[in-house]
Amino acid sequence: MAEHLLGAVFPGAVFPGTGSPDAGFLEVWGCWTPALAPDRRAVAYVSDRDGAPRVWVQPLEPGGRARVVDTGPEPVADVSWSPAGDRLAVLVAPGGGEHTQVWTVRADGGDLRPLAAPEGGSAWFAEWTGRGDLLLVTEVSAAGLTEALLIDAATGSRETVAAGPLLHPEAVSRDHARVLLRCGPRGVRRMYVKDLSPGGINLPGGDAGLSGAGPSLPGGGTGLAGGVAERPLLAELPGSTEHGVLSPGGGTAYLLTDAGRDRAALVAVPVDGLVGAPVELPVGGGREGLPVVVAERPDAELDRFALTVDGRRLVLVWNTAGRSELEVLEAGNGPGGGSDDAGTADTGPGAGFGAGFGGGRGWVRRPLPAPPGEVVSSVRLAPDGRVAVLAVEGPAQPSHVVLCDLDTGRYLPVAGTGPLAAAVGAELVRVPARDGLELSGWLYRPPGVPGPAPYAVFLHGGPEDQERPVFTPLYQCLVAAGIGVFAPNVRGSAGFGRAFRDADNHALRFRAIDDVADCAAYLVRAGLADSARLACLGWSYGGYLTLAALVTYPRLFRAGVDVCGMADFATFYERTEPWIAAAAVSEYGHPEADRDLLHALSPLHAFDRLTAPLLVVHGARDTNVPAYEAEQVVRAARARGVPCELLLFEDEGHEIRRRANRVVFVRRVTEWLGRRLTGASSG
Description:
single chain; 683 residues; alpha+beta; eight-stranded mixed β-sheet
């Protein structure tokens, strides 16, 4: 059936809406977070093809034309199709800022209304539960309190199932008897399972409700009703668990985690009878009733995964030094394999996924062919588990939507633009740091530039993000202007194991600043860059790292660009969102206990060493890193006679979501660096 669907709709693998392969880098558009309709007749996705990110629906029939779903004038960040197929959940970003809201709309564009839109706070959705129109939602108040909610998209009725700081609901079992919760900041997140009251959730449809006050989640939040304590998964093991799902009957939790190991893997945890004691994780041949590593690789980290509705198939996306590789895991039929065809109850250890954690029997692992792009940023499955819809991109191709027949491994396009002939590829380069730690990054060489060229070192955000080979208009425009780009993953970046990710915490951040200088020195030593024509720029944490490198190594860079960066940790902690401040402590330090360290790490206090001209870019609606940080930088630089310009977007937040603003941003940065590194202006 899946093969027939794909072959009939896209026999020639032609992208709908593809323009000229020589189209300018700033005119192309992308597609993100695709969701396949339950009947597999259409795909919904977010696209900026008409200038701002909105919801589009592409029918999957020959000649079907994409149409926009009217969700109002505000930018959209995500979309998800309800199991019944009649409604969409939409994540809206009012004003382009970070205070997102959850709305619902009929698939035909009617009955648009808010589901979760706290005043002064944020909301986002986790998943449709599979029962009616119930949606699992996270809502964060202006004060930073998080609630996990089940909301009926048809009626707006809601029930709170958990509350606490830094809390995120991951999944709920299909009978609504159990919920999976993630708690804590990045790098040290823990997963908890919570049994709800026996009758389930009190929403329309005859289910019984919750009652009474529950215990506390870690951090002092209010727990669930019913008096049943949250049970930690992989308790006390060092590391972090970033994502999890429950098997159809809720008896097994599948976790993306590096708990007790260095590289993130897929671990299955039996939930029934769990006592929370720390254990070592066996691989394959574990004892029944204990967690087991279902899939791991010594050369890669698990990036994301998806589980089918019946629990018998998993699609894994591996991150191999930044590039994506896909794999399918099938439930076997051997002894202890079990199935969960009804989707309501597990039949034993590992049920719903073969005999996986019961001893490794019955597993079938099958790699899929390389995807049509270096990076897979999203994967969702059809209800029957035979088709996956992916968002894929690479340095020379913007994010686009493809379907993958999981039985044959065949990829066929749905929406997006084709490869750009004028774009340059990205080359993986490894760089030794001064203390021997191996760094890496992606090199974009300017074609036709003889000898050492001007180069820009671009630093990503996070700090636990990862630079990957994706389509970045700024890089392509800089290269076209004769300026090479090196985008490194300095210590603290994700994707290279837990030890590397934690190598910049607290006082170790000074070494990450040294990494920036070591990357610049490598470019010169390798004969790629002209030492007199180097620039440093970065976004968010990368903006901070840019400022820190400019004042620590004042003669190294000729110019700098700070995009939404922090300048002073004291003012950052005072003015950012409460939940962001709480999450930042594990990485940067505590604003009171580590006051002296944070002062020393803050570049604003060393601006007497700043010599490089600065371009400062910020969104006025940024609440992650408030624009006050940019104001301080501009004021301090100008007070010392350092040339400094400010580019402020009144209708953007921490990201630049609108294409018109992105065009202004890229052109301004390219022109700014061009004048200082090449002596030319790009206009």
